[in-house]
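A reminder from the course coordinator: this example appears on the midterm review sheet, so study it carefully.

Given structure:
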């Protein structure tokens, strides 16, 4: 049967690593998961308890832009956390951040247009762009620039995607850096998309939303990370006033609406901050373990992990094939890690990403295994 070229995208390597780890577990092996960016905790219990009452109702379609109560609560979140006065009419509830990216790229760009993304970055940006007939422009970032795009990178682009905290590096953009990028995009007529799905997971400083420095931006967030709701597949997007109806038409036709039950759970989760902030204590403890233990194991060079729950380590002293190195670590040490090729097809062959989103006991055991593996190598 014939097929389109839209499916000719690279695999999401971390999912392949997860499958290899699952197969090893099915064979009876003990595997420590440091590959996947998934919180070791589930949705907040208080929110799950509140959802039980909602399930007695027939949860039919919601309107395409999402539950009005959830959109209003998200707008209040921006006032509470960032001091931003946000009109709820600008909030679009989406089928996870992935659904938001599809909507954003559809609303902003025509076939063949160039959209910039700084390497290393979340791999699905470029794969979704390619599947939609767009041209991802890979921007080489530097350690001096904290692995983030710079204002000079904007020229000639229809759009620019930035993420703070970033995946896989964990680096963050401060207010001045975001302002400079927003101003450069405005001068160049470049659409700015700010991926903020790791907001709320930081260590020592608050993440800055792009809405603090400009209204001419698409901001994308998710309930998957801070709110610990990965499998519920619900997120949100904030768009300029004059883009709301355009996005609404696309959302109605592409998705009808996000899951009603997921939206209800998200609404309850927004009032579960004490429980969610307790999760941050786990991430902070895990981060401290890895910052101390990875150099002892031999992984001494990595990006500064300001936020999220990843450490992106340079392993060029040991290999020029990170994918094979990750497979060796899984086979011999029983630790699943993600090769950098997922995030950077140019230089990712010499990097690994370690996720510390799991239980602290598992992270400690993973470090013990990694140290023994490196010592025996």
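Designed residues:
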């Amino acid at each position: 049967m014939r097929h389109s070229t839209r499916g000719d995208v690279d695999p999401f390597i971390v999912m392949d690593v997860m499958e290899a780890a699952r197969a090893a577990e099915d064979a009876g092996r003990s595997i420590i998961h440091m590959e996947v960016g998934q919180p070791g905790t589930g949705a907040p219990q208080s929110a799950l308890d509140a959802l039980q009452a909602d399930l007695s109702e027939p949860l039919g379609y919601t309107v395409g832009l999402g539950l009005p109560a959830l959109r209003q609560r998200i707008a209040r979140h921006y006032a509470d956390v960032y001091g931003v006065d946000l009109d709820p009419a600008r909030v679009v509830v989406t089928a996870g951040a992935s659904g938001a990216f599809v909507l954003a790229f559809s609303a902003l760009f025509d076939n063949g247009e160039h959209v910039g993304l700084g390497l290393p970055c979340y791999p699905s940006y470029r794969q979704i762009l390619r599947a939609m007939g767009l041209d991802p422009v890979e921007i080489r970032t530097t350690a001096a620039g904290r692995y983030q795009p710079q204002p000079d990178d904007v020229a000639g682009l229809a759009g620019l995607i930035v993420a703070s905290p970033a995946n896989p590096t964990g680096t963050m953009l401060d207010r001045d850096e975001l302002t400079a990028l927003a101003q450069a995009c405005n001068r160049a007529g470049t659409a700015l998309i700010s991926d903020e799905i790791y907001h709320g997971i930081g260590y020592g400083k608050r993440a800055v939303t792009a809405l603090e420095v400009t209204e001419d931006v698409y901001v994308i967030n998710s309930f998957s990370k801070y709110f610990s709701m990965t499998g519920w597949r619900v997120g949100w997007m904030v768009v300029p006033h004059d883009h709301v109806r355009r996005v609404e038409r696309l959302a109605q036709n592409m998705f009808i609406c996000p899951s009603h039950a997921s939206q209800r759970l998200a609404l309850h989760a927004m009032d579960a901050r004490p429980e969610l902030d307790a999760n941050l204590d786990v991430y902070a403890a895990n981060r401290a373990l890895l910052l101390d233990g990875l150099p002892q194991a031999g992984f001494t060079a990595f990006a500064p992990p300001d936020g999220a729950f990843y450490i992106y380590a340079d392993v060029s002293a040991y290999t020029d094939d990170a994918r094979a190195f990750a497979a060796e670590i899984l086979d011999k040490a029983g630790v699943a890690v993600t090769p950098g090729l997922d995030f950077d097809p140019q230089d990712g062959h010499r990097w690994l990403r370690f996720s510390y989103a799991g239980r602290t006991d598992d992270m400690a055991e993973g470090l013990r295994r990694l140290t023994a593996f490196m010592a025996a190598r």
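The longest strand covers residues 114-119. Residues 45-271 form a domain with the Aspartate Aminotransferase; domain 2 fold (CATH 3.40.640.10).
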